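User: Show me a protein chain along with its predicted structure.
Assistant: Here is one chain, sequence first, then structure tokens.
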Amino acid sequence: MGSDNMQNYLNKGIYGANQTKPEERKKYLGSLRERIYLSMTIEQLITEDYLDALKKEVTQHPNNMLLFNGSIDIKDLDPYIKLSNQMNCTFRIVTDEFAEKSNIGLVYVAPEATNIENIDVAEKYPKTDNPPNNKVREKKSFFKKLFS
């Protein structure tokens, strides 16, 4: 073995095998961005506003996996775990050191690349419970009333 091969062998033994895109894996709970159908931040997950969006995504792309951030309280994950059981969707709770540092609460991933452009749940499924745009009458000031 040459000195370069020996050094590579020692590095693999000490640090483990090299990973592709380690920053991406840290952010997306061990998965790659190109494999994700849908992602939620911790705040979005806790509000449960996007539970129907997740159900729609799992229905459209069955037989994939949900990854949950293990630093989130289990009572906040409970509705999503129940949904995954109802829809026969496998899930995994990621509890490594990177999950504690990530602001991602949930990702729905495929085993191969999907290359979905928009994966953020708020952008992909915007909330529609906004009140309709009723025209608000502009109040005229006293002087405008007087001189118009």
